Amino acid sequence: MKKILFVDDDREVRRFFQNELEHFNLPFSALVAEDGVKAIEILQKEFISVVVTDLKMPRMDGLALLNAITRDYPDISVIIITGYATEKIKKMVLQSGAAAFIEKPFKIERLIGPINAILKNESDGGTLHGVTPGMFLQLVEMEEKTCTVRLTDGNTGEQGVLFFDQGLLLDARTSKQHGKDAAYEIFAWDNVSVGIQNICFQKQDRIKSDLQAILLESMRRKDEQDQNENQVIWLDSEDEKPAVMEINLSNDVDYLSVEDVQKMLREEIVQECLPEKIIADSSWDNFLFYGTRLSKCLGGGKLKVGFIDNGSSGNTILLRGRETIVVSISSACPRDKIMDLLSR
């Protein structure tokens, strides 16, 4: 559910706001803060969609809060309410980036209308459900879209936002992180709902990295975390030094051996087109590992066989195994047939 933050130094006004909202069946919940300083603290912990703030408050007033949100949370819309309205103040507030300006006193319906309109606009470019972030974001990059993408992790309910300008990822944020770290977290989510808004609120490039590099680093971090979770640490009774025991939680897989590959290809491929070399070479393990992770991130199936074009002199086929099996073939060999055999 979306969250709205209401900021006012008057306790009775805050109470009125929360009590009035209870009479409506609304697609959002409300948090409250007594001033701009407290509001910033909440923004650093919670994923907020809209901030409604009074203009005159101690410590940090509404205008200072608006400027801070515009700088650090550009996708969050701000509605200003005040009992000291003049045309000059209204003009200044709207020019500073406020989404709406409402004079006190007001009926709660006057506020609900702009909030609902803002929330509806958050997905004016469409919504998707049950997708992987990598698969969707590759399309954003290829189509060079300019948009703000809001994502919700289907497993945890965590929310995040990504900013794209002509396919370039400029920034990311979750409730607790900004920039690259937020992007790494979002890209590790497996099942997300996506809302697209056809505007990019961020103007600065705070990522400064290729999308593919962010995807791969996200997968590396996730695998490292999974590996740590699959370890049991205990103390030896004599020297009390920590030791680590690996626990493999995945199911056993029957991988082909070098001998299996040699036999299979001798039976299926004519002698003149047999591979020049079939060996196990662990130096390719990381390459195939990250290829496998990227395939999963993009919504593809399990990567079993990979192909590397070495130029006119020959080609290399990589086969997933307990060690990576490298099959070197000449350019005249039936590459597609060999790969089809090995992927069965």
Query: How many domain regions?
Result: 3
Element-by-element helix/strand order? EHEHEHEHEHEHEEEHEHEEHEHEEEH
Q: What is the CATH architecture assignment of the largest domain?
A: 3-Layer(aba) Sandwich
> What's the CATH superfamily of the largest domain, by name?
Response regulator
Q: What is the 3D form? A: elongated
Enumerate the spans where pLDDT stays under 50 for 5 or more consecutive residues.
230-253
Arithmetic mean pLDDT? 82
Give a short account of the largest sheet.
5 strands, parallel
Write up this protein.
With 344 residues, the chain is an alpha/beta fold. It is built from 11 helices and 16 strands. It has helices at residues 11-21, 36-43, 62-72, 87-95, 108-121, 133-142, 179-187, 211-229, 258-268, 285-297, 335-342, and strands spanning 2-7, 28-33, 50-54, 77-82, 100-103, 127-131, 147-153, 159-165, 168-174, 192-197, 231-235, 242-246, 277-280, 305-309, 315-319, 325-329. It has a 5-stranded parallel beta sheet, with helices on both faces. The protein has a 5-stranded antiparallel beta sheet with strand order 6-10-7-8-9. Helix 2 (36-43) packs parallel to helix 3 and helix 8 packs across helix 10. The model is unreliable at 230-253 (pLDDT under 50).
